[in-house]
Amino acid sequence: MGLLEDKVAIVTGAGDGIGRATSMLLASEGATVVLVDVNAAGLDETKAMIEAASGAAVTCVADVSDPEQVQGYVEVAKGITGRIDGFFNNAGILGPMVPLTDYPVDAFDKVISVNLRGVFLGLKYVLPVMLAQGSGSIVNTSSMGGVGGLPGQTGYSASKHGVIGLTKTAALESVAAGVRVNAVLPGTIKTRMAMAGAAGMDPAIVEAMMDGSTPGGRAGVPEDIAKAVLFLLSDASAYMTGIELPVDGGITAQ
Ligand code: NAD
């Protein structure tokens, strides 16, 4: 019996990286997973990987920064059993790597739109379903850059700080109704996004730098985050809400 047997869970950013690994783990624990991403080909790959492991998933191509498309993926999820039990509000993008004074205004707006407005919209349209059913667990993806500053990533850091504020406010507004909202703060995780942050460099050198900057000498892999998200979505964390959980191999302990 899996931890999420007969549950329905939504994962945004499911077409790659942390979202894909988490979708696969949630499905392996019995959830039917609604896979959301702008990348249709990535979604199809994730669905095929889940089905190859005898799991269940449906895909929904949607941009998380668009209110109508967010309502669209919520409707798809409700159409499965009428319930939404878990929600991994995870899709995000990096901005250009430049100092604040050079940071283009349109790049700032774009990063805020996906990383902050997208997480807000997910909460705005998923929470009413969970509040009405009197249960549910949500995990928002923040970052180490959502606690301290992140030189070169003004828009990204601002958006991830904002995700913490959304998480705590939503948690307090929902706790009496039996709904939990937490944030996961990945450290340096080997995904396409993290590699893109060092575009133009030899990938082997980038990976070695990631490993070297992490206590213990191992940067994270998407599955490290997936396990923490499974914990927060499952009843194993039933008395936890409004927390910021770093999953970073010890980076924030330094
Ligand atoms: P990734 O690039 O591998 O995956 C992100 C996915 O989000 C992609 O499939 C992309 O198509 C999708 N996406 C982008 N914009 C979207 C939109 N508007 N609507 C729907 N989907 C969209 O990146 P990842 O590393 O797996 O990142 C996942 C989350 O983890 C992000 O929120 C990121 O900020 C966060 N994070 C990552 C790291 C890291 O080191 N990789 C560290 C801290 C936080």
From TrEMBL:
Keywords carried by this UniProt record: Oxidoreductase
Task: Tell me the Pfam families matching this sequence.
Answer: adh_short_C2
Q: Does the keyword Oxidoreductase apply?
A: yes
Query: What PROSITE patterns does the record tag this protein with?
Result: ADH_SHORT
Q: Which parts of the chain span the membrane according to its record?
A: none
Q: Which InterPro entries match?
A: NAD(P)-bd_dom_sf (IPR036291), Sc_DH/Rdtase_CS (IPR020904), SDR_fam (IPR002347)
Q: Which NCBIfam families match?
A: PRK07231.1
Regarding protein family, the annotation reads: Belongs to the short-chain dehydrogenases/reductases (SDR) family.
Protein name in UniProt:
SDR family NAD(P)-dependent oxidoreductase
In its UniProt entry, the species of origin is given as Microbacterium sediminicola
